[in-house]
Amino acid sequence: MFNYRFSRRVLFILFLLLFSGIRVFGYEIFYPSEKNYTTTYDYGLFVGKARSSESITINNEKVFVASNGAFAHSVKLREGDNRVFIRSNYSTKVYNICKKKEVTKVQPEFKEVVEHVVLVNKDNVPLRSAPEDIGFNIISYLFKDTRVIINGEKGNYYRVFLSKDKFAWILKSDITEFVNADKTPASFINTESQKYKNASIQTISFTKNLPYTVEDGEKEILFRVYNPELSENSVYTLNILKPRNYFYNVTLKDGLYTFKVSEVPKSIEDCTIIVDAGHGGTQKGAMGCLGDEEKNINLRIALELQKILREKGAKVVMTRECDGTISLKDRIQIAKDNDVDIFLSIHMNSIGNVAYEKSKYRGTSVYYFNRNSKELATILEKSIPQYAGTKRNGVRTASFAVIRPASYVGVLIETAYMINPLDSLLYTQENFAENVAKGILCGLEEFIQK
Fold first, then answer.
1. pLDDT tens track for 188-211
2. Residue 432, helix vs strand vs coil
3. Is residue 168 domain-shared with residue 253, that is, in the same domain?
4. Are residues 325 and 398 in the same domain?
5. How many independent structural domains does the chain possess?
6. Residue 203 half-sphere exposure, CB side, CA atoms within 13 Å?
7. Tens digits of per-residue pLDDT, 268-287?
8. Residue 11 pLDDT level (bands cut at 50, 70, 90)
9. What dihedral angle (degrees, nearest 10) is formed by the CA atoms of 347, 350, 352, 353?
10. Are 404 and 369 in contact (CB under 8 A)?
């Protein structure tokens, strides 16, 4: 016979056990994902979510917890083994972090090399001002079969002789030695210029492919071609005036350089804009205090931006419209294939090897690489917080691959900090993506109509 009273008592006991289990395990840590790990960082960052009734300490320091339970805290690490205790009024978790000393790389010595001509073996090869792989030292991108003179080496780089007062560096793997090289210097043929409604084109022609550099100045662009086989002073310079909002592109074919400067259309309806949702697929991006993945928030903002830009009549190109993995190289190629005017890369922020401060690492920051993108970055850093409610966190330069090309105006927007509890109160709101998109649109319209 069924005992109703007994069954209720059993269910009540089970409920108490379940409830006590939730209380025991309490808070969740979403980053780091492992309790035992090795790092070379000076700080260990912890982000997670607490229950409403929990008070959190990390190594006996009280941690700020937002009203939604989000918290973040960093711990200074000493060399060797570190034990980090995360405690609440319900439970304790212990993390074991081994900090290894970062190995100092031995700097290679410079060696002289017998001066001789080599060929660039592919397109888009960086010519650098120094023998190290950082974006800020790129002075041009050389084309396949460009003739360069090398006369020294340092590590993985050859030193390139351009003129009496100018040297550069190129990766050894980007050049090809060739036997019985044609030692006849290239000859200058001519230069021409053409003016169009929204663009100007200047050409300079030689009998062979030669190295070049670009210097984007305050009022003009200096395009220089070097012919060191002819003489150490053989430098040809084009002084190219530029409009207020511009981008430029360089092509080379059979010794003919074409330098095109284009003006950004003055109407959003005439613009082709690429909206790049950062990360995606296996590339999750930053992890938030509440367990949110950056890639998903980026996509929500990107889709909202796509919608309102199209409503305004802009031609919109998306790098992704779903949760898929796409390389940086492919994102850039999509932009080039579609001749875009403006590249908007959407991200959420985190921190690297620094001590976390909730008042400092909070809000919207916008990054640019080329001079032609600084004004748009400055405008967006103001307009997005006005709509999204975020703090202004600054305009900065950075060598992110997708904004490095000068063939479009490119910015990377860090909308808010995934790891900041106060920002998590904003980016988890239902209308956050829409508000960010409205802020971007407002900034774009201001930039385009100037």
1. 999 999 999 899 999 999 999 999
2. helix
3. no
4. yes
5. 4
6. 14
7. 999 999 999 999 999 999 99
8. low
9. 170
10. yes
